Amino acid sequence: MKKYNYSLTDTMNCSEQINNKVKNQGGYGRNYKIAAAIILMLVFLMIISSCGSGIKEADDGRITVYTSFYVMYDFASKIGGERVNIINMVPAGMEPHDWEPSPRDIADLSEADLFIYSGAGMEGWVDKILGAVNNRNLVAVETSKGIDILKSYHFQEDSEEEPGHSHDEHIYDPHVWLNPINAKTQMKAIKDALIQVDVMNRDFYEKNYNYYAEKLDELDKKYREAVSSFSRKEIVVSHAAYGYLCDAYGLEQYALDSITGGEPTGAKMGEIVEFIRNHDIKVIFYDGLSSSKAADVIAAETGIRTAVLNAIEGLSAEDLKAGKDYFSVMEENLKALSEALSQGE
After folding, report:
1. Cα gap 37→29, rounded to integer Å
2. What is the Cα 101 distance to its own chain's centre?
3. Which helix (H) or strand (E) segment is 141 a member of?
4. In this predicted model, what pLDDT tens digit does every residue of 195-225 receive, in sequence order?
5. Which one is predicted more confidently, 78 or 55?
6. How many other CB atoms sit within 10 Å of the CB of residue 192?
7. Which of the four pLDDT bands, split at 50, 70 and 90, describes residue 171?
8. Which end of the chain is more exposed for a tag (fewer CB within 10 A), N or C?
9. Domain-by-domain residue ranges, the chain?
């Protein structure tokens, strides 16, 4: 269904143009009155048809889906395929924790049928943008609902927790998708939401979900088999993003900085240097999207190497052009872990 953007103002302007034309031609004849009535009726029907359904489709008939950042975009693209028009809000290569929506972003989201976000504090701007959106028919889905949310690395370290915190204050680790089983839960939430707003394509979305759910199970199995052969379980990382990955496969992360990144303190860097030397760590990981500066300093101090362990918060334009996606990056992560934690390293 094509979406028409006629308003009451357009209708009145149309009527005025007809009236002026009639006056210029010498008065109101019967034919002109009939023509004016028909035109007004057609415009009115266009207004009703565009407002009545509550589903604003793209010009080619597809529903419009907005996603909060790359992983949500990738998952939605896999389930929705060519049947949906998907727009990702955070630009390629940008750190999602640092991004804030503009008034233009809010206006654009108001034209969507479905908004997909991860939640658990990943997108601190969600409540604000949903409160400002002028679209009562917009369906918003938080894909991390139903997943056991872990405390962040630094709050796990603290023995006392201040009361009154929320997910947005980063007590909790939002990087749930780094466990493939959690990613399957998120894909299911996306599939269910797509069916809710576009039930005519139910079978298509179900088929795609089932295909990728099986791939996620295979990925999980591959990780479990690889980790069983690792000679060590500790990883040192610059960004404390890997709680779900570590929890799923029995690894332990030791991080320079917090969930959202930032500059580590001198005391924290000294602590990590000591840990590396005491535990014969050979690699320090950084996420590939934020700066590797702190990891480089630690590597130079301890004589170890740096490597990327991608948190998949976003991919660079080059990676996207090369066709990388969640699955290929998770395969790269497994290779990096195997090289760092196997006996030969």
Report:
1. 13
2. 14
3. strand 139-142
4. 999 999 999 999 999 999 999 999 999 999 9
5. 78
6. 15
7. confident
8. N
9. 8-52, 63-221, 229-341
Give pLDDT tens digits for 91-144: 988 888 879 999 999 999 999 999 999 999 999 999 999 999 999 999 999 999
For 102, the token pair is 């503009």
Query: What angle is formed at CA 243 by the lines to CA 237 and CA 303, rounded to 5 degrees?
Result: 15
The helix/strand/coil state of 46 is helix
Q: How far is CA 215 from the centre of its chain?
A: 20
Query: 3.40.309.10, 3.90.420.10, 3.40.50.1000, 3.40.50.1980: which CATH number matches 229-341?
Result: 3.40.50.1980
Handedness of CA 66, 68, 73, 77 (dihedral sign): negative
Would you state the structure tokens that stand for residue 261, as one six-digit string? Answer: 């990144």
C-alpha 197/C-alpha 192 separation (Å) is 9
**What pTM value is reported for the model?**
0.80
The predicted structure's pLDDT at residue 207: 98
Q: What is the rounded radius of gyration, in angstroms, for the C-alpha atoms of the chain?
A: 26
As a dihedral over the C-alpha atoms of residue 320, residue 326, residue 332, residue 338, rounded to 10 degrees, the angle is 170
